[in-house]
# Entry
Amino acid sequence: AGLCVKSGNAVILRGGSEAARSNAAIVDEIRAALQEAGLDKDAVQAAPTTDRAFVGEMLRAERWIDVIIPRGGRGLIERVAAESRIPVIKHLDGVCHVYVDRAADLEMAVRIAVNAKVQRPGVCNAMETLLVHEEIAPRAVPAILRELHKRGVELRGCETTRRLVPDLPVKEATEDDWRAEYLALILAVRVVESLDAAIEHIARYGSGHTDAIVTNDYEAGMRFLREVDSSSVMWNASTRFADGFEYGLGAEIGISTDRLHARGPVGLEGLTTEKWIVLGHGEVRE
# Structure
């Protein structure tokens, strides 16, 4: 609500029935603060009901509502995306990858992979799949997976991965694992034959949220940044940095994996549009 008001917008807040009284109390405080500041308290309103049918009414209210921002479970977001007549800012999944290139610094790769998976596993910018180039895999896979195992991460790997760490309890990865957003201490691991294969894997299974490469090869790093089509692409940094506050945006209203009009962390600028202003002195067009 604060971001919406600061960006010059009004907002209608609709929360779940399980927190209806808390939501109402919060909205009452925000409206009182707006009035105290000399602003129109009706710039922030709460939906008058928690009935799900009201969501459908909002999705058809294109005359009154300019953008819908769904936050919640996959079912809600899929419904909003399918039914809305209004532009939507959303992301469905955070299937984030870290790719350890053959020219990676191994110590750095271990540090980044552990942070990306373990630091806060239940958020959308946590790593869900680790990709490792086959040339560095004999050294990188054991080093990284042993550190993750120590921290309680359940590992699911391809055949090559499992062969490289016979001492670890690595389950056989299935096709579903490559698409999974676990939001838990579970990780899918795949050894790939090349940078091309890593980019292809991300294009096929990724969600367009955040993907990272670990490498000291300039050409490989730049190519990864150019060719991986995600809202955040990182080189030698943890995927956990995909965050509005970390990017200097202040608060964020969410992370968009759409291409227009906002993409990535959505802060104040993402809640605005352009307006062209022309100042004249009587000019006319010939």
